[in-house]
Design a protein that fits this description.
The chain has helices at residues 7-10, 13-18, 22-33, 54-57, 99-102, 118-124, 184-192, 233-273, 280-300, 308-312, 314-326, 329-386, and strands spanning 64-70, 75-81, 88-90, 96-98, 104-116, 129-130, 139-144, 164-169, 173-177, 195-211, 219-222, 225-228. The chain is of the alpha+beta class and 387 residues long. The longest helix is centred in the C-terminal third of the chain and has 58 residues, at 329-386. It starts with 6 loop residues before the first helix and ends with a helix.
């Protein structure tokens, strides 16, 4: 029995007969009007009792070109329909939710101070404290929400749970995992009460971890996210360590940039006037600032110390190495070191200039004293000759 075309498809019959591509057009029209016909046979069809999900139709829609007719002029343009679509799941309210959004764990890193009293922080939050599994003592991990749940292995998942984790570092960084937007300020205030050296401007960075148990490999990187088979406490520690170093390094790079800009202005002034005006105290302050920044990056951040978890397990070593490469920690430190060498060169030049200026002043003072002594001797000789 022939398939009956809808009224709108009948109106295209005259155009299809005059078009050179009428056979392919008719096949496309029949495919759309009768998906179960002989021209198109999907792999599987829903049962008659279950309603047809229009969103799932695109999952078995093949790649073809449909002809779109606009107006009476007969102009048509090919449109490509792709069979590969983003995997979706049905939400509780009947809507469609992106699978990537469902498995996404937001990660936010902040740097707001130069030191945090971890012992005091642990004493106040003992129920939330997770004991360490390594010798690293420059950070603590706190769990909030459902304290009975614990991420141990592949059977656990942080996605969809109300459990939040925060990693606090002694040098002032804090990394939040799965924390809602309306609770971020509360966790930051909780840590700030035990921090010293609060910065006037807080640094912030965002990242994303996705869980996918069916992933072929242990981990897979992406644009501003990393996909893992599962995320446990060791994974939180590994990801948090790299993000905490990255956001802190960003602050120190900014401080060195300000020093470079200051010496650039001094050099430009020297280019115009041939001299510079800087107090010795100001120069010593710049020397101390440059040295302290370099010491903080190497000693406090532990930028070149490999994570103990990465030493023990190759899976977390892979995450650690990937994230360090993703955030370019080695390259950024090399740039910081180069800028510090520029600052050091300028400091050495200015110190020598100030020293030479002081030597010139002492030399002139000695010349004046010698001249004064000569004048006094001549005066005495003149007085004796008169007598």
């Amino acid at each position: 029995m022939a398939t009956k075309l809808p009224l709108k498809l009948k109106s295209l019959r005259l155009f299809s007969l005059s078009s050179p591509s009428s056979p392919s057009l008719l096949r496309s029209l029949f495919t759309l009007s009768n998906p179960t016909g002989p021209i198109f046979r999907p792999p599987t069809m829903p049962s008659p009792s279950s309603p047809l999900n229009t969103g799932s139709f695109s999952l078995f829609l093949p790649q073809f070109r449909a002809v779109i007719v606009s107006g009476a002029g007969g102009f048509y343009s090919p449109v490509r329909f792709m069979s590969s679509v983003t995997e979706t799941v049905e939400s509780n309210d009947g809507g469609v939710v992106d699978e990537d959004a469902k498995t996404s764990i937001p990660v936010r890193a902040y740097f707001f101070s130069t030191s945090v009293d971890l012992k005091r922080l642990i004493e106040v939050n003992k129920p939330n404290f997770i004991p360490p599994t390594s010798r690293m003592t420059n950070y603590v991990v706190l769990r909030f929400g459902d304290l009975n749940s614990e991420l141990k292995g592949s059977d656990s998942s942080l996605c969809g749970s109300d459990c939040s984790y925060i990693v606090v570092f002694q040098y002032g960084s804090i990394v939040l995992f799965n924390v809602p937007d309306n609770e971020i300020d509360g966790y930051l205030s909780l840590v700030k009460t035990h921090a010293s050296g609060i910065l006037p401007e807080m640094r912030k960075d965002e990242y994303e971890v996705r869980e996918k148990p069916t992933l072929d490999t242990w981990m897979q990187g992406g644009l501003d996210y990393i996909m893992l088979q599962y995320l446990n406490i060791d994974g939180i520690r590994t990801v948090g360590s790299v993000l905490g170093q990255s956001i802190a390094l960003d602050y120190y790079v900014r401080q060195v940039d300000l020093m470079v800009a200051e010496f650039t202005d001094i050099n430009r002034g020297m280019e115009k006037s041939g001299t510079f005006a800087m107090e010795k105290k100001k120069l010593f302050q710049l020397v101390g600032k440059a040295n302290s920044n370099l010491a903080d990056v190497i000693l406090k951040l532990g930028l070149f110390e490999r994570s103990d978890i990465a030493w023990k397990d190759a899976k977390y070593a892979e995450i650690w190495e990937y994230l360090r490469d993703e955030f370019e920690l080695t390259q950024r430190f090399a740039s910081l070191d180069f800028k510090l060498k520029f600052v050091e060169h300028n400091i050495r030049f200015l110190q020598e200039s100030l020293q030479n200026r002081k030597s010139d002043s002492l030399e002139w003072l000695i010349i004046v004293l010698i001249g004064t002594e000569i004048l006094i001797s001549i005066y005495d000789i003149a007085q004796k000759s008169v007598l």
